[in-house]
Write a structure and sequence with these properties.
It is a single chain. Helix content is 75%, strand content 0%. The chain is built from eight helices and no strands.
Length: 178
């Protein structure tokens, strides 16, 4: 079936989105590394709440969640992108990333605050279905502060800068000369 010209999935749009998909692994590794370091996961392994395998699984899963949200911002920006200055594009992507990661974090925290025991006692009931155990590990007690004050700003800045690098490499951004 040929792709229609007025469709959002034109061949040109697919070519513009492809670098975002390729950037998946480096963003995932970086977000996982930040989660490991900023949440001091090694100390949680030594103290006993998690085995090494459990900790790695939780960090990889949360890193994947963050990465999917970042890549969604990139894909949205790729599909709606208009030529502009490098730094303007960088800050727009960083701001969109802050917004998306902030909405996700707020949804998890609000869900936890509105939870009542009659809704179930599992992590999925308390922190969002399907990813409740992961969210519980990173948003329980004061973990949400680390997420909002450290993870979101760092990942958002890296997202904007990485998006700018991607745009420079693909030549999809014009330089404004004075």
């Amino acid at each position: 079936m040929p792709i229609q010209q007025n469709s959002i999935l034109t061949q040109q749009n697919l070519v513009r989105v492809l670098p975002s998909a390729i950037a998946f692994l480096p963003v995932w590794f970086l977000s996982s590394y930040l989660l490991w370091r900023l949440y001091d996961i090694q100390q949680l392994i030594v103290a006993g709440p998690y085995s090494h395998a459990q900790a790695v699984h939780l960090v990889r899963t949360m890193g994947l969640i963050i990465t999917v949200l970042v890549i969604a911002v990139w894909v949205y920006t790729d599909l709606r992108h208009r030529a502009g200055a490098y730094w303007r594009c960088t800050w727009k992507v960083a701001a969109k990333t802050i917004l998306v990661l902030g909405i996700y974090g707020a949804a998890v925290v609000i869900r936890r605050e509105l939870w009542r025991p009659n809704q179930g006692l599992s992590d999925d009931a308390m922190f969002l279905p399907f990813i409740g155990t992961t969210n519980a590990a990173f948003f329980s007690e004061y973990g949400w502060l680390i997420y909002f004050l450290e993870i979101v700003p760092i990942i958002s800045l890296v997202s904007g800068l990485s998006y700018q690098l991607k745009m420079r490499m693909t030549g999809n951004l014009r330089i404004r000369r004075r």
